[in-house]
Specification:
This protein is about 40% helix and about 20% strand. It has about 400 residues and is α/β, with parallel strands linked by helices. The C terminus is likely disordered. The chain binds iron/sulfur cluster (SF4).
Length: about 400
């Protein structure tokens, strides 16, 4: 495994407020003492480095929470130390997620100086009413201003939008998407609003404060998104991620292509040499664990070859490039991981494409991926597709 590529995910768990749709591991605290956090993250990182010697570091992703609230000096230190633990690839991709308010935009130049070379900006909407509904702390005007600042500071900028909100129509979303595609970024993350259990939106939906957009309308918006992004030369390369060729998130491709990634910080997941690692979610518990054990791991478990093959199938079929089913079967010691007759039936119905042992979902297939996986997988239990892991952001 010496020289094998490795991705590093660093989770910063704090936000200024909790968005009502969010089920990420994010916490609001009156104040955050940066020094102990820097030391804890570095200790957690050193633990992973001891267990993954000699690897080639291809990407670092600071996710959250709101990592643009990190002290840029902390970001710089983590990058510097990661580069000493591993051999950094020449084109090391270093992404940081940011919220588009003026305070955070004021830090972009310092974050770029710290080594961040790709910014993922949580714009979420261009409409102030939608931003208020989503509980976002910024206005549309602040969002555009932050995007402009980001495009000056970073070579690569992506932004997120959330669509399929109650009341969204094909006319309203196509206008928003046309605007998004005109803003000069080469990567977009376009997520449909989903109501996650345990969120404030879940309670509101139960109380009928609002009704989510119905599934058929949401599916129509997804297909519209596929058509418009393809026409603009920024096609889907994953269920919710769109990029010009060569501008995909390399970090996330590592997850979806089933490579190893070290995940450090509260709630971070990792995949290390056939093991699944999970860190303590609550910030205070994470800090206490690091003080006790010099790492923040709450759970570490070897993946069976059934689980690993299943995960590789589930992750890989999120991608437009799809998977080589025979290569995955061989990697984990199976004769086959898919029932080819069922694959061919889904090719005939227009949900999958097949070339030899490569299978890829079409746009309509990406919408039905849960069902497709259940239909085609053989002999392996089904991993949940329900939502991305804490570490799977773009
Ligand atoms: S959506 Fe982002 S900014 Fe809002 S609470 Fe979740 S992690 Fe924080």
């Amino acid at each position: 495994m010496i020289g094998e590529p490795l991705a590093l995910y660093v989770h910063w768990p704090f936000c200024v407020s909790k968005c009502p749709y969010c089920d990420f591991n994010s916490h609001v605290r009156a104040s955050i003492d940066q020094d102990p956090w820097r030391e804890a993250l570095l200790a957690d990182l050193a633990h992973e480095a001891r267990l993954l010697p000699g690897r080639r570091l291809t990407s670092i992703f600071f996710g959250g929470g709101t990592p643009s609230l990190m002290d840029p000096a902390t970001v710089a230190k983590i990058i510097e130390i990661a580069r000493t633990h591993w051999t950094a690839a020449d084109d090391l991709e270093i992404t940081l997620e940011a919220n588009p308010n003026s305070v955070e935009a004021g830090r972009f130049a310092n974050l770029a100086a710290a080594g961040v070379n790709r910014l993922s900006l949580g714009l979420q909407s261009f409409d102030d009413r939608a931003l208020a509904f989503l509980g976002r702390a910024h206005s549309a005007r602040e969002g555009f201003a932050a995007l402009e600042t980001a495009q000056k500071a970073f070579r690569r900028v992506s932004f997120d939008l959330i669509y399929a909100l109650p009341g969204d129509t094909e006319a309203s979303w196509s206008a928003t998407l046309a605007q998004a595609l005109s803003l000069g970024t080469r990567h977009l993350s376009l997520y449909q609003l989903t109501i996650e259990p345990g969120t404030r939106f879940a309670t509101m939906v139960t109380k009928r404060d609002f009704d989510p957009l119905d599934a058929d309308a949401a599916a129509a918006l997804y297909e519209l998104t596929d058509t418009m992004t393809s026409a603009a030369g920024t096609p889907a390369y994953e269920i919710s991620n769109y990029a010009r060729a060569g501008h995909e998130s390399r970090h996330n491709l590592t997850y979806w292509r089933y490579g190893d990634y070290a995940g450090v910080g509260p709630g971070a997941h990792g995949r290390r040499l056939g093991m699944r690692t999970v860190r303590h979610r609550k910030p205070e518990n994470f800090l206490a664990a690091v003080r006790r054990n010099e790492h923040g791991i709450s759970e570490e478990k070897p993946l069976s070859r059934f689980e690993a093959a299943d995960e590789a199938l589930v992750m890989g079929l999120r991608l437009s490039e799809g998977i080589d089913a025979d290569a995955i079967a061989e990697r984990f010691g199976f004769d086959a991981i898919v029932a080819w007759s069922k694959v061919d039936r889904l090719v005939a119905s227009g949900h999958l494409e097949r070339q030899g042992s490569r299978i890829a979902p079409t746009a309509s297939g990406r919408l039905l991926l849960d069902h497709i996986l259940v239909a085609i997988a053989v002999d392996v239990p089904r991993a949940s597709l329900a939502r991305p892991l804490e570490s799977v952001r773009a």
